[in-house]
UniProtKB/TrEMBL annotation:
InterPro entries: AbiEi_2. It comes from the Bacteria. GO terms for biological process: DNA replication; plasmid maintenance. It comes from Chitinophaga cymbidii. This is Uncharacterized protein.
Length: 329
């Protein structure tokens, strides 16, 4: 597959500019391959990492590879725009199978980004419907739920009795849930399940939870956001502000709130102004429990940070993963 993607991307770029490129498998176990190409009678060599689709959770590995293998190029069928921006910022070249490319090293500089393409379509199955994503979140946060009765699961997750059987059956078919014995189930491939959940949550569930975008009434209130008297058990910091409260490592630029409160109450209680260009995004709370807190669960904070594609957010997400999640996954 690596060779197929690399050669498809090379062919696309050779059709766009007068360049000759050659791919070969890498002699380094930590890399997929290497590319040598000639342009203007000069020869260039890049170490290469190949992905079907570059995802946010893969960025830390790419950055680590760049520290040892330079210059580095990422070759993929699709790279999200926010990740392209991060790669350029870090001086990492990229090449998509449609010919879009960014290569900057010594006396060579290409930046072609006019070819439109769409991310590969995923068919994750019924388990990853909006309802399934709600249930899987609870399973990932508390695996003991998979061994409760459907009635107990419904009570603790808010997912209807009938949907639970459908979703758990789908998880079994996809290899994420297995039967240890006649009475006990367990989640397997949990890191893969988490990664799949994060992408589906970003694309499918989270947009449906959006209430509105706001800004603070006064600019100086931005600096005092920690003093905002969130209603315990109803409104929660998520994303960047939640990460700052947990780690002290990230100064938030974008604010995320999850809430059960009405829109009008949010405006009055927290002095918010509806503004589509604002930096406060408010979503409906979708999980059960956590009533004595004003910070979203670490699992959700991690997912929101990883899904930004921003390096600083991803670094902070890794700190949260190491502190709160790694023993689970």
């Amino acid at each position: 597959m690596d060779k197929y993607i690399a050669e498809k991307a090379i062919t696309a770029l050779e059709d766009l500019i007068d360049i000759t490129m050659q791919w070969k498998a890498s002699r380094h176990k930590a890399l997929d391959g290497e590319i040598t190409f000639r342009y203007n009678k000069k020869e260039y060599h890049f170490f290469a990492e190949v992905k079907s689709e570059l995802r946010n959770n893969q960025l830390p590995k790419i950055l680590a590879q760049k520290a040892t293998y330079h210059p580095l190029i990422v070759i993929a069928e699709y790279i999200y725009p926010n990740l392209k921006k991060e790669l350029r910022k870090e001086g990492i070249a990229y090449l998509e199978t449609n010919g879009n490319t960014y290569i900057k090293d010594k006396d060579i500089y290409f930046w072609l980004d006019g070819k439109k393409t769409n991310p590969p379509e995923e068919k994750p199955g019924r388990a990853f419907s909006k309802t399934g994503l709600r249930l899987i979140f609870h399973f990932l946060a508390d695996e003991s739920l998979v061994n409760m009765t459907y009635r107990e699961i419904a009570k603790k997750t808010g997912v209807s009795f009938g949907n639970i059987n459908v979703i758990m059956t789908a998880l079994r078919k996809q290899g994420f849930l297995i039967e240890k014995d006649r009475k006990t189930f367990m989640l397997v491939n949990k890191k893969s399940l988490l990664d799949t959940w994060m992408m589906a949550y970003r694309d499918k569930l989270k947009p449906s939870l959006k209430i509105a975008t706001f800004r603070f009434l006064k600019d100086d209130e931005y600096m005092q956001w920690k003093k905002l008297p969130l209603k315990t058990g109803e409104t929660y910091w998520g994303g960047e502000p939640a990460a700052d409260l947990l780690t002290g490592y990230l100064k938030p630029g974008e604010f995320t709130l999850y809430t059960l409160e009405k829109r009008s109450d949010l405006i009055k209680r927290y002095r918010l102004v509806p503004d589509e260009t604002g930096n406060i995004n408010v979503y409906q709370k979708f999980w059960e429990g956590n009533e004595e807190n004003t910070i979203a669960p670490p699992l959700l904070i991690y997912a929101d940070l990883m899904n930004t594609g921003d390096r600083r957010c991803i670094e902070t997400a890794q700190k949260i993963y190491n502190e709160y999640l790694q023993d689970t996954f």
